[in-house]
Amino acid sequence: MWDINYDNSLKLVATGAEDKVRQAFKPGAKEVARNPDLASGEGYASDYNNLGLIWLNMSELGETTAAVNYLEKSLYIGSGVVEQSQSDVEELLFKSITVTPFSEHQLSWGGELKQQSIRQHNKSRLQACNSEFETCLPSSFSPIVEDLTEVDVNFASVFTDIKVQHSNSWQTTLGAVVSYNDFTSESFIEPRLFARYSLSEGSHIGLSAGQYHQWFRNLNYLSPVFGNPDLELSTANIFGASFEQKLANAWNWKIDVYYKQLDNLIMANPAAQNQEFSNDADTQTAKFINNAEGTAWGAELMINKALQDNWYGWFTLAYANTQRKNSTTGRSFEYEFDIPWIANLVAKYQFNEHWHLGVKWSYQSGRRYTQVLSADPVYPTENGQPDESQAPLFYQPVYGEFNGQRRDAGHRMDIRLDYHTKIANHEVNFYLDILNLFGHQRIQEDEWNADYSEATPDYEFPDEMFPGLGVSIRF
Question: Considering the domain 99-121+135-335, what is its CATH architecture?
Answer without folding.
Answer: Beta Barrel (2.40)
